[in-house]
Amino acid sequence: MCLTMRTRKTRIRARAKTDILTREQRRKHVAQYLQQSLTEIEIAAKLNVCLSVVYRDIQALKQTANQFVYDLAKSDLAYFYKDLLDDINKARLNAWAIYYNFSDSEKHEKLLSIKTVIASNTEMFNLLSQGPTVMAVKSLNERINAIKLAQNQGQQRQGRTPIV
Predict the structure, then answer these.
(1) How far is residue 119's CA from residue 6's CA, in Å, rounded to a whole number?
(2) In angstroms, rounded to a whole number, what is the distance separating the alpha carbons of residues 132 and 154?
(3) Are 43 and 26 in contact (CB under 8 A)?
(4) Block mean pLDDT (10 aa), the chain, length 164
(5) Host H or E run for residue 104
(6) Residue 128 CB: number of other CB atoms within 10 A?
(7) Pairwise CA distance, residues 90 & 117, whole Å
(8) N or C: which terminus of the chain carries fewer CB neighbours within 10 A?
(9) Distance between terminal CA atoms of the chain?
(10) Around 26, how many Cα atoms within 13 Å sit in the side-chain half-sphere?
(11) Euclidean distance between CA atoms 83 and 151, whole angstroms
């Protein structure tokens, strides 16, 4: 039986018998159990909570992880941008130094390696810069779906055809 559905006396006894965890502690346990490949039902049984609580905790953990990735990409983007620009400038300076200081047979190989550095830096920056955009689009899609769901529920109550 779900902890929240028990009678008051039963809940008091259950609290006396088990160590009640804070929400944060419980979510840490949920994350650990998920890493151990336990099912939601097994996690609920181990923590002595409702299955719905476990589902809400998993959803909250996913939201926290998404926010962490979004914040990381957003806050570190300027640093990586400057760092990559510095690398590209160093590569350009080295390319000119190679061009003027080494024999023709060595130039080709060294210029190819510098070209690879520039190409990888460019691609890395493109990937980093897309991080916040991808997260923002995902967030907007979730909001749009929530709005559509709310509109559909409202229209169903009024007897209208729902929006697809």
Answers:
(1) 63
(2) 33
(3) no
(4) 53 52 92 93 94 95 85 68 75 73 70 76 72 69 83 79 62
(5) helix 104-158
(6) 17
(7) 10
(8) C
(9) 37
(10) 21
(11) 47
Predicted pLDDT of residue 60:
95
Give the separation between CA 59 and CA 12, rounded to whole angstroms: 28
Q: What share of the chain is helix, strand, coil (3-state, %, to 5)?
A: 85, 0, 15
Residue 18's pLDDT is: 47
Cα torsion angle, 27, 29, 31, 34, sign? negative
Report the pLDDT value the prediction gives residue 74, as an integer from 0 to 100. 63
CB contact set of 16 (below 8 Å; sequence gap of 6+): none
> pLDDT at position 100, please?
72
Instruction: List the one residue out of 44, 76, 69 whose CA is nearest residue 58.
Output: 44
Tokens coding 69: 């990735």
Contact 69, 63 (CB under 8 A): no
From the centroid of its chain, how far is CA 5? 34
The type of residue at 18 is: T
Cβ proximity of 3 and 50 under 8 Å: yes
Burial class of residue 23, CB neighbours in 10 A (0-12, 13-18, 19+): exposed
Looking at residue 104, what is its pLDDT? 66
Regarding pTM above 0.85, the answer is no
